[in-house]
Amino acid sequence: MKLFTILILMVIAMPFAMADLDDEITEEEQEAFDEILTPVMKIYNFVKYSATTLAALFMVFSAVSFMTSGEDQRKREGAKKSISYIIVGLMVIWAVPYVISFLVG
Question: pTM for this structure?
Answer without folding.
Answer: 0.65
